[in-house]
Amino acid sequence: MVNCCGLLTDKKEPVPLKGIEVEVEVRDHVATVVSTLHYENKEDKPLEAVFVFPMPADAAVCHFSAKIGQTQVVAEVQEKQKAREEYDDALSSGQQAFLLEESEQSPDIFSLSVGSLPPEESASIRLEYVTELAVQADDGLRFCLPAVLNPRYQPQGSEGGSAQVTSVPASLVPYSLSFSARVSSPRPVCKVESNCSLDPLQYLNTEQTQASVQLAAGHKFDRDVELLIYYKDAHQPAAVVEAGQASAKPGSLMGDPVVMLSLYPEFPQAVMSKMTSCGEFVFLLDRSGSMDCPMDSSHQGQTRISSARDTLLLLLKSLPMGCYFNIYSFGSEYDSIFPKSVEYSQKSMEDALKMVEQMTADMGGTEILQPLKQIFSQPCIPSQPRQLFIFTDGEVGNTKEVINLVKKNAASHRCFSFGIGEGASSALITGVAKEGGGHAQFITGTDRMQPKVRQIEKFALQPAVVDISVTWDLPKGVSVTPLSSSIKTLFQGQRSLLYAQLTGESSGASDGCVTVKYRLADHPSQNQLHFSLKPTEDTGLTIHRLGARTLIRSLETEDGEPSGGVKEKVVELSVQSGVSSAFTAFIAVNKGDGKAIQGPLVRRNVPTPSKWQRRHTIIMLLHIDATFCNCCLIFSSDDESEHTLSCEPQQPPREPLLQLISLQTASGSWLLEPALAAALGKTSEELEKPKPPSEVWATILALIWLHGFKMEAQEEWELLAMKAVSWLHAQKGSEDN
């Protein structure tokens, strides 16, 4: 019988993982992350510890090693099946072995196996990866250390199987986390914000271009750790050239220099002022059971479904008159508000909003594939480009199937995605946006939702950029091999990254130039970036690894099932660069003194934080004082669906800005009514004193209030204000006639 003391899982099994140390080094918009996991076997038998955990979807895992006592073993990258066989052989012969592999279904899930850890023995696992930081709507750079791994719903009949996850409620995670970050940039670091408590920012030089920060004492590893980094005069076009590895063969990816280009397209103002007034806007809302969970670990405030409803409200209110729209929702099944897309009007908007307000997370499992197929099968409306908006917490096990479907239909559908709540699959959310030519945003409990919604809304209303091409002008003797896929879409001021391998040498000029040409609303445009071919110092092999990761991901997501030739190329690239892939794994074997570890091997699954747990329930309705909550137990007879216990707190009233937005009509005006007076903090009598027509006066008052009290949030409401001003101009025109 196991002695139940020390760190235990929810099933009272000892946990060999004792703590995690994370050190992050951010250079401009690239982060290098080093995680050290400390294992200790307090049982009287040898252990195999298995830890399934989340990773950023675009991370390039480039180092994996283990230290046992004074012995350090560095892992190597091998073809996945070969690595698994070597791991199993090592355990069978009583040797210590360590295996790190990426999920074949989703690149944001990894599995770490620590095999044959003897009694009273400890081991430290060192894992290193590099990743790009996403630009946010307020120009901050977002770094996320995923902690939460929610169970992924696996639809019946889908390809492959999802990783087997052992999870506990986030508040019961039985191991600690220490986290520190060092930030450096050519430009001053203005501030660093987080969803977690931080110690004060420490500047490391007088120019304030270097700074450090760490989590405050007492942090529990019960949520994703997010950092938002703000630089002064951020996000200028730039190029970084990194020298090749001296020991690598010239002409190979690792032997040649690699350049990373950061492009921020600037479109002509005359074109950008003509935002599209047409289009078909299709919204797909996740109503699976997991959407009933709180947005963050505080378990207070909004649920995911409530946040998704508010996000949908903002988008619906800003649609242009004359466009078409429809709303689908899905769980184990799917449904739509209208049989087909309808023209946007006051009546259709009101009908849709009434339906949206009644939507709850009561549709079972997360089967997103079928509603997507239904949407893609519908004929497009002539002269109305179709835009698809997906709202989901991303808890699916068939991620690659979904992304491939979006990719196949990208020519006729532009896809934007919102990841709702902590633990949303970054692979799914970013994958569908990337392959669908759109943009992705993550909304968690600590975020202001409106800026992110407005940014995607601006991108969606921007005329589509077409005929995108990239040309290189390099000195004689230097050739270029692109590592990135061709650019599929461009958005005003939004970063686009390009990686390329530079081969050869130039005896003369040492500068290069890249030109991006495109057409926007039938207007030809181009942006250029001149850069030095001289390698930047002290970057190590970060750019090479990111470039290798980019090329590997591109090959892995080619149309259909990757062929044998593609798999071979991916394995070759992965082994050569030391970067993980879906077809390779890191393997390390500690042969030590050659003595076999004695005794039967006991498997222990290390739990991962989860925001919700599946529960089998019975039909019951409990009425509790409304000041606390309304609880409803929901039962589903289908074992494959999600079973949830809903205990949703009474939702707080909407903030004034959201309340005001909810009252705007489809045409852009406001009505002079008591609800408007309440939103503006006035009485109905105070609003009715002046003499202009009531609807005109109500709209003017709403605009005055926005400019007088919400200027700090102008980017959140400026599209609504433009819509209102256009309506006012139209009223003046009708009066003149």
Automatic annotation (TrEMBL):
SUPFAM superfamilies: vWA-like. It comes from the Eukaryota. Residues 280-465 form the VWFA domain. Pfam families: VIT, VWA_3. Residues 1-131 form the VIT domain. This is von Willebrand factor A domain containing 5A. The gene is LOC115370403.
